[in-house]
Write a structure and sequence with these properties.
4 helices
């Protein structure tokens, strides 16, 4: 059913930590620290600048937006066009472009009313505004219109397709005993 999994930074993604995801994985920002990602998108230029000095896994391909300043780039960081303003939607867009089947999105708590993130970014100047959340939501609507995106959530959503954790787990993990 699923061809890839997109890992976002919402607290619900912690339920997936330590699981052996059997599909191609895409993630955003610092998700590579907790998940074995095949692809990681980092859009915020301050995040790109700060992460250039961090140890990054060699098995993960990293991407940023085409407008990222040259001076912030690091070896192996590729530029790609992004559909909105954030790394999460860019990771989902990349998964949709590179795979053919359904894309499962985990940790998308922001689309279900949760404003917490798993990571604290020391370089983040302020919390996202309602305008930013609105732009994220509009981009998610565009991606969802592909009819290939399902969110892992126990909550129903008036627009987005959802599947509960146990159902998602059965479909994407090699073993539930981890």
């Amino acid at each position: 059913m699923f061809s890839s999994v997109v890992v976002l930074n919402g607290p619900s993604s912690l339920r997936w930590s330590g699981r052996d995801i059997a599909l191609e994985t895409y993630g955003c920002n610092l998700a590579y620290k907790d998940f074995r990602l095949d692809h990681c998108v980092i859009v915020d230029v301050e995040a790109v600048r700060n992460l250039r000095h961090e140890q990054r896994p060699s098995h993960t391909r990293f991407y940023t937006k085409t407008a990222c300043p040259d001076s912030y780039l690091w070896p192996g960081l590729e530029r790609i066009p992004i559909p909105g303003i954030d790394s999460g939607t860019a990771a989902c867009d990349l998964a949709l472009k590179r795979t053919q089947g359904w894309v499962l999105v985990i940790g998308a708590d922001g689309q279900f009313g949760e404003t917490q993130t798993r990571y604290q970014y020391p370089w983040q100047r302020r919390q996202p505004t309602e305008r930013v959340y609105s732009i994220h939501y509009q981009t998610w609507l565009k991606l969802h219109s592909s009819h290939r995106v399902i969110f892992c959530s126990e909550q129903r959503h008036p627009v987005f397709l959802t599947l509960g954790f146990e159902g998602c787990l059965n479909l994407v993990c090699r073993s539930q005993n981890k």
